[in-house]
Amino acid sequence: MSLIFFLVLFFFHSHSLPVCRNSCANIEIDYPFGIDDGCGAPLFRNMLNCSTTFTPLTTPTTTTTTNTTAPVLTPTFASPTIASPTTTVTTPSATALFFQTPSGSYKVESIDYASKTVTIYDPSMSTCTILQPHHDFLLSDLQSALIPPSPDTVFALVNCSIDSPVLNHYKSLCFNFSSDHSCDDLYNSCTSFKIFNLFYFLLSNDTPPACCFTSYATLKFMSMNILDCTHYTSFYDVDKLKDEKPLDWSYGMKLSYSLPDTGCDRCRRSGGTCGFDVETEGMLCICSPTLNSTRQCGDGPVAGKAGEGLVFLHLSLTIVFVYVYVFIFMS
Ligand SMILES: *[C@@H]1O[C@H](CO)[C@@H](O)[C@H](O)[C@H]1NC(C)=O
Ligand SMILES: *[C@@H]1O[C@H](CO)[C@@H](O)[C@H](O)[C@H]1NC(C)=O
Ligand SMILES: *[C@@H]1O[C@H](CO)[C@@H](O)[C@H](O)[C@H]1NC(C)=O
Ligand SMILES: *[C@@H]1O[C@H](CO)[C@@H](O)[C@H](O)[C@H]1NC(C)=O
Ligand SMILES: *[C@@H]1O[C@H](CO)[C@@H](O)[C@H](O)[C@H]1NC(C)=O
């Protein structure tokens, strides 16, 4: 029994779960990103977060077939077949990947490693179909430098007051992102923004309030309060939206990241996963749950002999312990 116990212990110790998870909610997680600390590039540390949220009933898709009131009406001695749909209804959970910034967590829709882009979506942002009060979108200085919104991500500041800087001194920050798309387009064809046309027409018989298509740089330097616009929306892939109606635009933000050259390729070629030491933030090549190297795995100039040595020591000690244990029991 004791021998088995020891062997099981050793087995679990050396064959535990991979150090770095490589996916979250069907989105591949690869260098330079990581969702476990010590994985990916240190510059991107804590930017992504894979979390399971227990949300109240917001998505009707999961509850279409079950009637939430039905189990309540059934007698208390209900069979387990009725109990199971009840649990799925009361605690719907969804695992999702989030991009964390100083202004909040934004759901990651996709990561394209070939074009080095991350598409994120802010559920509290206005779109062509929903009007929601603005809140600032902010990136840290490091994020602004490393993973800023791509040039083809456009922000539309809506219902700006006549005193707004973008209508006065900073007028030049606004542009028409293509010859046939102006702000009037948004006011005229979006159910959410129609209110601005209507409101101003009814009350003052005046022109609708100004709006401004601008880039992230504007939001970076001026908060929404300074900009004096009540709502904003953002969309990406603007080159593809020329002939599309605002309803069909891709709402959200596309971030474009640059990849620091830290020698990850060498580690990967040797079969390792790139990571870093959580204390020193120095690069590590994670070869197995029990072996980290500084550059690469396997043969070659492996600098991280210390880790390898520890594994060997651990293995030797376990074998010695097992032998001693067996010896004591046998005698
Ligand atoms: C290897 O590095 C990873 C990431 O920093 C860490 O989680 C893990 O504990 C390290 N393993 C060893 C054996 O040092
Ligand atoms: C991950 O995101 C969730 C939801 O936004 C947040 O509550 C949590 O604090 C985050 N975890 C970490 C480690 O940042
Ligand atoms: C759900 O249950 C209520 C109360 O029994 C009933 O009136 C309603 O029609 C049911 N809805 C569906 C979709 O079955
Ligand atoms: C538009 O902005 C004005 C202030 O400039 C504000 O009073 C008004 O409530 C806003 N309209 C909507 C629909 O939020
Ligand atoms: C943008 O389009 C509107 C409407 O077509 C036009 O009035 C305005 O002059 C254009 N602005 C620029 C900077 O081209």
UniProtKB/TrEMBL annotation:
<protein>
    <recommendedName>
        <fullName>non-specific serine/threonine protein kinase</fullName>
        <ecNumber>2.7.11.1</ecNumber>
    </recommendedName>
</protein>
<keyword id="KW-0732">Signal</keyword>
<dbReference type="Pfam" id="PF13947">
    <property type="entry name" value="GUB_WAK_bind"/>
</dbReference>
<feature type="signal peptide">
    <location>
        <begin position="1"/>
        <end position="16"/>
    </location>
</feature>
<feature type="domain" description="Wall-associated receptor kinase galacturonan-binding">
    <location>
        <begin position="20"/>
        <end position="59"/>
    </location>
</feature>
<dbReference type="GO" id="GO:0004674">
    <property type="term" value="F:protein serine/threonine kinase activity"/>
</dbReference>
<dbReference type="InterPro" id="IPR025287">
    <property type="entry name" value="WAK_GUB"/>
</dbReference>
<feature type="transmembrane region" description="Helical">
    <location>
        <begin position="311"/>
        <end position="330"/>
    </location>
</feature>
<dbReference type="GO" id="GO:0016020">
    <property type="term" value="C:membrane"/>
</dbReference>
<dbReference type="GO" id="GO:0030247">
    <property type="term" value="F:polysaccharide binding"/>
</dbReference>
<keyword id="KW-0325">Glycoprotein</keyword>
<dbReference type="InterPro" id="IPR032872">
    <property type="entry name" value="WAK_assoc_C"/>
</dbReference>
<dbReference type="Pfam" id="PF14380">
    <property type="entry name" value="WAK_assoc"/>
</dbReference>
<keyword id="KW-1133">Transmembrane helix</keyword>
<feature type="domain" description="Wall-associated receptor kinase C-terminal">
    <location>
        <begin position="252"/>
        <end position="288"/>
    </location>
</feature>
<keyword id="KW-0472">Membrane</keyword>
<keyword id="KW-0812">Transmembrane</keyword>
